[in-house]
Design goal:
The complex is a heterodimer of chains A (about 110) and B (about 110). With about 110 residues, chain A is mainly beta. Chain A has no helices and nine strands. In chain A, strands 1-9-8-3-4 form a five-stranded mixed sheet, with no helix packed on it. In chain A, strand 6 and strand 7 form a beta hairpin. In chain B, strands 2, 4, 5, 6, 9, 10 and 11 form a seven-stranded mixed sheet that branches. In chain B, strands 1-3-8-7 form a four-stranded antiparallel sheet, with no helix packed on it. Classes of the chains: A mainly beta (about 110), B mainly beta (about 110). Chains A and B meet through strand 4 of A and strand 4, strand 5, strand 9 and strand 10 of B.
Chain lengths: ~110, ~110
């Protein structure tokens, strides 16, 4: 599975959009981009995933560049409860394949 | 409710003792995983199982053992051979019925005293 690079930390004002970048320059054509977040002392929570097209759900939007070498997770209106560590993962969508988690981005939403 | 249940949430162990962490899922997932997380660090894979009665070592399997006798259960034993067992342990699972997205339990804190 390809490696990802994320900034170690970011701040965002409450109510503003939080844009979390992820670089995955060695991504393969059959690898999906997944985003998870982890609030302290809890299990990671699935947010969203995509292959080529941009995706949106009730939690966030995922923007994947045309060359697929980077992506951005967007939390449209950040709240204090969005303060967490956000992980970007790329992997082949296949049961049993490992998920490799890096150190992620620690997002702090500021009142 | 469907999900992944880990127990206990907090566990203390004396040095030299083995301890078993429980992980049960009722999601009908084929694959199950155990990760370890140290403070301020990412998740590291200990063991994973793609199907009943089969499992593979992850990146940090030394000092740990697992079994997969039932589809819904994947217990992890932390043996006395694990030199630094104090950590946060996370169990996860995925399957075709979840679009192969991996889902996690709430974790277990193990402290060696």
């Amino acid at each position: 599975d390809a490696k990802t690079t994320q900034p170690p930390s970011m701040d965002c004002a409450e109510g503003r959009a939080a844009n979390l970048p992820c670089n995955h320059s060695t991504i393969s054509g059959n690898e999906y981009v997944y985003w998870y977040r982890q609030i302290h002392s809890q299990g990671p929570q699935y947010i969203i995933h995509g292959l080529k097209n941009n995706e949106t759900n009730e939690m966030a939007s995922l923007i994947i560049t045309e060359d697929r070498k980077s992506s951005t997770l967007i939390l449209p209106h950040a709240t204090l409860r969005d303060t967490a560590v956000y992980y970007c993962i790329v992997r082949v969508q296949n049961t049993g394949n490992q998920f490799y988690f890096g150190t992620g981005t620690s997002l702090t939403v500021i009142p | 409710d469907g999900g992944i249940t880990q127990s206990p949430k907090y566990l203390f162990r004396k040095e030299g003792q083995n301890v078993t962490l429980s992980c049960e899922q009722n999601l009908n997932h084929d694959a199950m995983y155990w990760y370890r997380q140290d403070p301020g660090q990412g998740l590291r894979l200990i063991y994973y199982s793609q199907i009943v009665n089969d499992f593979q070592k992850g990146d940090i399997a030394e000092g740990y053992s697992v079994s997969r006798e039932k589809k819904e259960s994947f217990p992890l034993t932390v043996t006395s051979a694990q030199k630094n067992p104090t950590a946060f342990y996370l169990c996860a699972s995925n399957g075709q019925n979840s679009g192969n997205t991996i889902y996690f339990g709430e974790g277990s804190w193990l402290t060696v005293v």
